[in-house]
Amino acid sequence: MFSASANSAENVSPALTTTRGRRRQRPVSSDNSVQQPKAKRQRIPLTDQTLANPTTTPETYEVKSAKPSMVDVKQDGIEESPTPKQELSLRSKKVRPGERLSKGDGSTLLSTNIAFDVRKLPALPDRLKLDTGSRQHGSVDSSTGYALSLSHTHAIVWPYAAPAQSPESFTFALPYPSKSSSDLLPLGALVPPSASSSEPGLVVVMPTNGRVTYWESISSATTLDFMRQQQNGVEGSITGMFSGESVIQITNAESAAGFILAFSSGRLAYLSVRDMHGRPKISTQFLRTNLGPANSGFFGSLRHVLSQTASQGDIAAVRSERSSKQGECTVVAVTSKGRLHSWRVHRGGHHDLLVEVDARNTILGAIQQMDSISAKLPAESLKILDFCFVPRGLERKYSDMSQLREPSESEDQQHLLLLASLSNKQGWRYTLIEVILHSALSDESPVEVGMIRPISAYSTAPDSQALAKPRLYLPRPNIIAFLVFDHAAVIASIAQSPDSPDSQILEDNHIIPASFEDVVDLRTDPTLEIVGSGIEEPKTPGFSATEGRVPRIKAKNPAAVLLVRGAGTLRIALTDVERFASEKPPEVTAKAKLEQAVFFGVKEDNPLVFDRQHGLRFTDEEYGAAALELSREILTSAGKHFSTLAARVDTNIKERVQYLEKIMTQIASLKVNLDRVTKWQLLWNAEKLHVANVIWHKHEEFTNLRPAASKKSIVAEIVEYIRSEEKSEPNAAKGEVDELRHWFIRDVDRMQIFIAWAYEVIKHNSKANLDNASLTRLIYEAAEIYNSAIRDAFTFRMRNLQLYGLGGEKMEHGILASDYTGLPTPWTCHPFIANNVKRQVELSTEWVKQHWSTDPEGQNALVQKTRELLPQMTEVYLTVVQELSRSYLASEDPKKAADGQKYASIYEQDRHDKVVLLAQTENWEAGIKIAENHESLPALAEILTREIDGLRRQLETPGLSPERLESLEAKATAKEEQVREYFITYGKDFAFPFYEYLFNTFGVDALLEYDGDKKFKTMYLRTKPELAKVSWINDIIGEEDIDHAADTLLDLGLAREQQVWNKKIELSLGKLARMAESSRPSSKASMSIQDTNVNGTAEDAQVDAIDKELAIIAVQDDLYNTQIRPVISVALEGEELRVVQETFALKIPKKYKILSQIFDDALRQLLNHEALDPLTLIDLLTLITLPPETREHMPDQFFSALSVAYNGLTGAERVQAERLIWRRCFLREDWTQLNNTTLKNDDDIVEVLGQTDLFQFYCTLYANQQSGADKNDYRRLSPSEVAGVYTETLDRRFEKMEKGYREKVLEAMRWEDNNLLKHIEKHRLEQWAKETRKYAEEAVNQQYDETTAAGAALSSPRSGPGRRQIKAFDSMNGKNGTH
């Protein structure tokens, strides 16, 4: 019945089995009485001490089916009535009491929580272990210490609490076995021991034929040489049974020396197994009642039976209560429809009917009033399933603890607790109802309802085919009730709730406050079924031996004992019953339910199951919080399920890993929808435990590799170095002296601290001047820790995403690819880890570079291993930093978000630098792979280029063998081919970094000469403005694209070139290339006339732009060559700028020194040969003071400035520049003196005008106009036209400068303008300007006439006539005026 195998055996005779030797049979007496054996021949009885639990706490073992003894048994089934014969069976050795006391009870803990434990008791007969397929049921009697199991053919009795796995048991072959397997199972009960015996007897009733067999003592019945009735028992039958009537219940009425039988017809009968003299004898007497069709068996009919049963309901239960009077007991029967009957039964079967009442409506009304859920269920579905008497004689404190009324000592009242149900198609609602029956002689109502206690934790319908009906138990001290069903047992508190305002409000509103409820479920297995049960009660004051025998099983707290077919005997024992009535009673929490499933559900052979919620439902948030808390407890080995001692740490960790996995399988089975954050936190906790196991194995590996004198690995060093506030300290007083093991048992939740400390250990040891060999070993071990721990964490994460409900997450390299919103920072990317793994990579690389040799004979094994670990450790580091940056960037904390940007930059930098670093240790292939994984194509290009260069260098090494040369050449060729493949695979994303590195490392020649690709090289050069000087060469040499080369040169010269000489060359070459390309016949032939016209127009415009730029460059070159170069050629080295400033600077008041700064900046650019932009060159030309000795070597400076404006500026910008040029030219003279003509003749005035810069400017303008050398139509502006320029806004150069600087420039411009206006208003500048222009044009005309007369074949003046061409002013040297 209680095992997992079924087997066959030989036919078993009806004689009971025994281990005793045969004795001479005694003659059978005529009165069928039994002569008891003499005392000296009696067997040693089963004493209280034998069954006592040991004082020490029993050990709990894994839940595994005990391997049954392979004895010959017969599968219980239907047998013909056999011929009696004797049979011997093996019997277990009787263990002495002293031995039992010294050992544990052998029970296996199946489940535990704050309220109760569930244990599997070891004692089980071998026959029951082997027989799990037959129909059987039974009962447990704690008063005798025995359990009874009945099948169709056998009855088995055994001491259920014995510590032996195969206890001494008694098997009885039934003399009248059932004829069909579908027949009702025999009913039986243990008979209290007689005065001459210490062990109980047994009575068995065949339900259909009424046959009764009685064995007076199970111990004496095993003696084969007793009389025949002792072998086969005393037999008899029930007289007066109707046809079709059957016995359905048997109840012990111990104080009345008999049993109460209930029949399917509703009748009840008293069964006696002894006569008036105490001798065995079977007799029955039916009780007077309206439940059945007749009394004492007369005039009954089956039709009457059926009609009565239909109206009143089947008998649900019959129970008896001991009376204070000797030889009496009270018997109560309850029908399923709520009819109650009570008798007082005397020894011998005499009885008195006390009360008979239909309480259905009273019970139903009370339930519906107190329970709103039951009120919604159909009233006709009300059923009474079972009841029990409320124990009397308790101390007052226990009565106050219970919701039940204090039991009356009067026997005229029957204090009952009923188990009722209401149901519909959706489920069942069970309720406990307190009922008090008053006798017919009482003035009170026959039935009174007290406590109503709905059961919310269980709503499964009872199985109509179950081998045992639902049972209700109320053990002393009336605080906890046990409800036993076919596959579950409910533990329900009926303790008084603590007084509180809330409880008072609930009571006033007829709402029942919640109290403790929990369910113990069996697995879904055809062999598993609760087929019998009983209870164990504590000995409490008021319950003494005077009321009956002292129970053999002495329990400290109430317990229910279940007989489970296919499993064994289970005991549900409360841990502290009084706690249920305390201020803080036990609660069923999500964590408690999860704990049970995790720590006991992992055992495959546990008959209990923990994934059924019934009515105990918790929210997803409660389950999530419970799962997290339990997960942390598992990591830290906190709680009663863990020990601080682990002989094998790896086994301890593996068990805890299983617990974490069980959390998730349990969550899934309960269909709990955890939030995303909780799922990730649970997975991260599991990763830590997995990594702990990996590190522990590494520690053992390190230890085995270390010399005997140095067994302390880096793992032990790390634990020792971790600060005390970052780990739990072992308690030496409790024997916890192994700090390393203690950390792996208690501190795994701080794994990120452990891993980060690996580098710190090396740092501290290096400062302590540790020898190189030891330091090498530490560096290697640290590299192993970083690589294996974090890498295995990522692998574990990827492998368990589905288990943790994260299968839909987008992952890469073991980390989340995106969406870190709301998630805490993953432990694998803790900033400490990110920082220290980076340091470890750098340290290991440097150490390998210093100590690694390519020569196999000179290699250090640990250095070589470290070198091999570098690529993996580098990839781990990059993944950690990438995960950290993503996590921080998604944070709502501004500081973290800022740090996230920093880490993102570090990742971008290090995914190149750290990968390239692998080249220094010749980890070429690994570096290539990591570069591809992290999409660091610049690093990929660099590594390949460096490897190819290294191979080519090796080929140049003299003295290489032909084989070596061939090998190196093949390898280099293969790498070059790999580069070409990457060009195809990655395109410009790889090509551009490749050419970048090639150019920066090996120069222009290597870039232009590389012939592995043309497409991307040209594309690269053309997209790099700074390489335009190389790009145009490639256009001509590599692409033969002169047109694009011209575009490149012109674009470079016109827009980007800063050096004036380069700009001049580039523009000249570009112009030449453009002219050459346009003149090619092939290019013209391929175009239509319209295209030719369009292109010609465009080319003309571009050539014009080139000419204008070249004209501006010519002005700058003229200024430098004719004015600056002569001065700096005689200056000391380093003094050039100072000398030039002193020579050419215009005198400007200090208040407006901003103009001097503008001049100095322009002059500095000129000295550096930078190409000046038009506005800067105009400033320089209009602010410079040219010395007389060099002034004549260049055209007029203001004319040059005007030429720059016309060639380099357009639109309003050119107009403003013109006005500025004319204003500064007007301000070059002191018009105050010129306007004062007092005492001056005409020649003197004309001579003074001829010395002014304005006169020279007019002369040059007019001469150029006359010669036609310059196509520009220069305007002559009057002083009034140029006033106000740049006094409100400045040119584009100053737009982005700070406001203070712009204000200073504007102030200087206004100062210039004020001076101009003063000359206009007070010194007649408008008129003087006109006079000066007139005389200048006359002088130019005069010069042309003289030249023509002289017949000189002169070309037009260089840029204007100047004073060398005007005789009238030949000796004049114009003096510079002031602003």
Could you tell me the mean pLDDT?
81
**Neighbour order of strands in the largest sheet:** 3-4-31-30-29
Given as residue ranges, the uncertain stretches (5+ residues, pLDDT < 50) are: 1-103, 223-231, 294-307, 542-548, 1352-1379
Output the CATH topology of the domain at 17-356. Methylamine Dehydrogenase, Chain H
CATH architecture of the domain at 17-356: 7 Propeller
Radius of gyration: 56 Å
- Share of residues in strands: 5-15%
Overall shape = elongated
CATH class of the domain at 17-356: Mainly Beta
By DSSP, the count of extended strands is 34
- Residue share in helix: 40-55%
Largest sheet composition: 5 strands, antiparallel
Number of helices: 42
Cα-to-Cα separation, first versus last residue = 124 Å
Structural class: alpha+beta
Write a structural description.
This protein is an alpha+beta fold and 1379 residues long. Among the domains are: 17-356, Methylamine Dehydrogenase, Chain H (7 Propeller); 360-586, no CATH class; 936-1023; 1154-1369, no CATH class. Helix content is 43%, strand content 14%. It is built from 42 helices and 34 strands. The strands form nine sheets. It has a five-stranded antiparallel sheet with strand order 3-4-31-30-29. The protein has a five-stranded antiparallel sheet with strand order 25-26-27-28-32, covered by helices on one side. Strand 18 and strand 19 (339-346) form a beta hairpin. Helix 33 (1174-1183) packs parallel to helix 36. The radius of gyration is 56 Å and the shape is elongated.
